[in-house]
Amino acid sequence: MDFHIGGFIPFTLTDYPGRVAAVVFTQGCNLACPFCHNKSLIPKKEAAQTASNRHVHEVLYLLHERKGRLKAVVISGGEPTLQPGLAGFIKEIRSRGYLVKLDTNGTKPEVIRDLIEKGLLDFVAMDVKAPLEKYNLLCGGKVDTQAILSSIRVIAESGISCQFRTTFVPHLLSKEDICAIRALLPKGAEHKIQRYVAPRMQDSLEHKSFNVVPV
Question: CB–CB of 165/114 below 8 Å?
Answer without folding.
Answer: no
